[in-house]
Design goal:
Elements lengths: L3 E10 L5 H14 L4 H21 L6 E9 L3 E8 L17 H12 L3 E7 L4 E9 L6
Antiparallel strand pairs: 1-2, 2-3, 3-5, 4-5
Length: about 140
Amino acid sequence: MPSTVMRHDFQVISEAQYVPLARRETAKVLTDWGMSEDVVDTACLIISELVANVLRHAAVLSPTAAVTLAVEEQAALVLAVADAHPLKPKPLPAAHDLGGRGLLLVDALVREVRGRAEVLPETATGGKRITIRLPLAPVVA
């Protein structure tokens, strides 16, 4: 199991006005940690999309979302959003008029930097945790 060098946890209420709060908190913490602007921008977009998905799809059973930002010794930035809803998200095959772009966007960003995404059960709440690992070292083509 990877060792964590830095970690920051916070919670946001599952309401639309708190998505920008999650984005600002992520930007502040990662900037304070010395992350590059590109990494901060990518992480903020991913956190915004994941928190927005909680309020769209899980808020009925999850009045808050738990956000974790961490750096692992193996030079990986870990972004995680957990909620108390048991439904596991599935990206739609294509975006449509009613939504479906969030997880497509997150998946594209993760693949672009050769990161990893996983959905794990959150046993304490009966919900799930979406964890994204982004390499901090340059990607060699």
